[in-house]
Prior knowledge:
Blueprint: H1 11-45, H2 49-95, H3 97-110, H4 115-139, H5 149-172, H6 176-201, H7 206-233
Helix pairs in contact: 1-2, 1-5, 1-6, 1-7, 2-3, 2-4, 2-5, 3-4, 5-6, 6-7
Amino acid sequence: MSDQTHDEAHGGALGSRLNWLRAGVLGANDGIVSTAGIVVGVAGATDDRSALLTAGLAGLLAGSMSMAAGEYVSVSTQRDAEEAALAQEKRELREEPEAELAELTALLAARGLSGDVAREAAQQLTARDALRAHARVELGIDPEDLTNPWHAAAASFVAFTVGALLPLLAMTLPPPSWRLAVTVVSVLFALALTGWSSARLGAAPPRPAVGRNMAGGALAMAVTYGAGSLLGAAGV
């Protein structure tokens, strides 16, 4: 049997990658829905291209910056908590090495290893890199791969912007008589795609996710278009 190279992500690396992909899909979904709601609402009041473009760009920038700032704050808080937990673990390893070795042994035994094997594994892991062993087994943290708030903020900004560009371009590029129809169709198609993608990433049935996504987007556009139409008719 010939040897074959096998490059496959496992464990935390795969989970981290899936989390980033899922966050990207959800960010794009938010960009699609929120910007579509804005431009469709404005389209209910006016067919002026400048007004539509201004409203759409304002919504895109406000939404992308809000997403990026929120993600930065959230991930910074998570990183602070991870660093604090690692600092505490480092202090415990320095002050109570035997107790920490016993704790690591118990954690490995709880995962199915026999007592002797768990003790031997704990000793080897401790000798190689005690902090990393305890961080990964006890805390579920990789000290060499802590969450990066700047990366998270940039990813959210890009994902939201990419999603928001679709309804913005669909509403401003076609001729006036086609704008609303093109926007609604393209937005619903994009929401079907993001719903399917999020379901696949979560190993869930795609049909309910697609249906919920499309229904939510359609409702958002209907509500904002109705509000825009009423305001336009009232001369506001």
